[in-house]
């Protein structure tokens, strides 16, 4: 056996990678089919994104009652939550509870990171290697590695010389104490906004090193009263039906009214109502139908938010730095009094477009105006190499010997956000060009489609003594890629430097990474695919 003496090999029907929302449900569905399944997870427990992102203030941007599985009816009625938006600890406890109640943990192996995956055409299986001296052979490989998990670290001179505490929001330690310390936060997307809001009152000094001013609206977060919960429980069936048939699955009706079709007074009233009700997606898509397609409508929404910022931030200079100058066309953010934190004397903001960071020093950060900012701790809220980052950093080798990284050198593509030609029996949950929505309902939709597709392959091979191989066709992939491109081509989103199109990672080619047709339409596409006998796939 040579070098394999220390390597244990296990053969199973399916390997699932990742123990977040997608991996947990996929593991359950495949084991319910009677397949042998091993779920491997790099972390020490379940949770996925919500295991690693335990930074202060970590919160879902979706209302609590829709940030969960719809299939677990008992949970929908009984699982408690304290507020209308879930914090990280509650989401983690929820996923742990699902795993225990449905006895899924027995199929899981933690502290086990996939290091490579290679299709073996001689045995029509995937060979998956890990960092734990384990090798798996599996007919099916399902990746549930998350949209936002491959950490994006900035590159500044002298980082290695800094002697203080250094954190990345996506790898937060279980034990930390920032109270009374001088803290710098680099980045102010959703994560940066949440961290700044959460720690501002406890630290001695806080400096936001802002890369891009953001449009942030209130979340509308409040205590979940018994009456509120009773109403949700009574309406859950209708709530989920509406969400799954909508565009974004955030629990509101997307607007069909163009902004210029109503008077200026009516516009202000609609914006004000949405601002007071809260939620970033509701403000962007529940007010008017053309905010992300019409420059005039977009500017009206942007001006409304800028006016709100000026009214919330007392210091005119801080307000000026916080005012967004770009179009309002990134993932919409929501907060719990983010702007108000800058009214404290010990909270400041540095616009890195005006005063860039030149280097890290032993004591902190030096900017190009010559100032050295002494800091006890620096937090990278700099996001992730989103969507395809985990696939291009780990060698996935298909049937022709090509890796996904090589195949995607001009941009990541797929069929339905699930499958890639020449990579048989590989299924990606939340792969490139999947739906841009509230994630748990999208994950459910994809898991259920993959589960039935695998079941169909097994049925088609019944009596033949082997499994069928499932592979997306090149024509199907091209058609889906073109559709995703065409749907988004008139969107102002494509003109912004956003992680949604891969623009946040230096050197990464900007490309379409999502299907913007909405969850309702996506579900219809998958339903039509199944009814057609899976015409976009080859079985052999």
From TrEMBL:
Task: State a single Pfam family of this protein.
Answer: FMO-like
Q: What's a Gene Ontology MF term here?
A: N,N-dimethylaniline monooxygenase activity
Q: Which UniProt keywords apply?
A: FAD, Flavoprotein, NADP, Oxidoreductase
Q: Domain of life here?
A: Eukaryota
Spell out where the chain crosses the membrane. Answer: none
Q: Which InterPro entries match?
A: FAD-binding_Monooxygenases, FAD/NAD-bd_sf, Flavin_mOase-like
Presence of keyword Membrane: no
Q: What is this protein called?
A: Cyclohexanone monooxygenase
């Amino acid at each position: 056996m040579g070098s394999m003496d220390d390597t244990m090999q296990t053969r199973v029907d399916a390997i699932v990678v990742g123990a977040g929302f997608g991996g947990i449900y996929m593991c359950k569905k495949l084991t319910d089919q009677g397949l042998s399944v091993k779920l491997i997870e790099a972390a020490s427990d379940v949770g996925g994104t919500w295991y690693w992102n335990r930074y202060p203030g970590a919160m879902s941007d979706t209302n609590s009652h829709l940030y969960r599985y719809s299939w677990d009816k008992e949970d929908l009625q009984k699982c408690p939550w304290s507020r209308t938006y879930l914090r990280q600890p509650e989401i983690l406890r929820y996923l742990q509870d699902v795993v225990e109640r449905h006895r899924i943990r027995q199929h899981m192996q933690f502290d086990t990171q996939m290091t490579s995956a290679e299709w073996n055409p001689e045995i029509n299986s995937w060979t998956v290697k890990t960092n734990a001296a384990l090798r798996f052979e599996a007919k099916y490989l399902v990746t549930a590695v998350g949209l936002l998990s491959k950490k994006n670290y900035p590159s500044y001179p002298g980082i290695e010389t800094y002697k203080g505490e250094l954190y990345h929001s996506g790898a937060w330690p279980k034990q930390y104490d920032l109270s009374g310390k001088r803290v710098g936060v680099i980045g102010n997307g959703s994560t940066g906004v949440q961290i700044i809001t959460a720690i501002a009152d406890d630290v001695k000094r806080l400096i936001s090193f802002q890369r891009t001013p953001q449009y942030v609206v209130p979340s509308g977060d409040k205590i979940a009263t018994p009456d509120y919960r009773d109403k949700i429980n009574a309406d859950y069936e209708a709530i989920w039906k509406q969400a799954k048939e909508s565009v974004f699955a955030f629990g509101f009706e997307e607007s069909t009214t163009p902004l210029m079709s109503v008077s200026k007074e009516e516009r202000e009233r609609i914006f004000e109502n949405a601002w007071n009700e809260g939620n970033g997606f509701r403000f962007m898509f529940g007010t008017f139908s053309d905010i992300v397609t019409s420059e005039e409508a977009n500017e009206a929404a942007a001006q409304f938010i800028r006016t709100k910022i000026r009214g919330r931030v007392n210091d005119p200079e801080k307000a000026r730095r916080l005012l967004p100058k770009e179009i309002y066309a990134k993932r919409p953010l929501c907060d719990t009094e983010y702007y108000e934190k800058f009214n404290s004397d010990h909270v400041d903001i540095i616009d890195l477009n005006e005063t860039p960071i030149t280097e890290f020093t032993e004591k902190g950060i030096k900017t190009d105006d010559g100032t050295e900012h002494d800091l006890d701790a620096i937090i990278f809220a700099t996001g992730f190499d989103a969507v395809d980052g985990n696939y291009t950093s780990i060698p996935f080798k298909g049937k022709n010997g090509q890796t996904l990284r090589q195949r995607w050198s001009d941009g990541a593509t797929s069929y339905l956000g699930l499958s890639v030609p020449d990579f048989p029996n590989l299924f990606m949950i939340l792969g490139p060009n999947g739906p841009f929505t509230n994630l748990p309902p999208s994950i459910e939709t994809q898991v259920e489609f993959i589960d039935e597709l695998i079941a169909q392959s097994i049925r088609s091979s019944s009596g033949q003594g082997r499994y069928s191989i499932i592979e997306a066709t090149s024509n199907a992939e091209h058609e889906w890629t073109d559709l995703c491109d065409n749907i988004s081509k008139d969107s102002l989103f494509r003109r912004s430097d956003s992680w949604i199109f891969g623009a946040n990672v230096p050197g990464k080619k900007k490309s379409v990474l999502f299907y913007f047709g909405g969850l309702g339409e996506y579900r219809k596409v998958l339903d039509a695919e199944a009814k057609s006998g899976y015409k976009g796939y080859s079985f052999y």
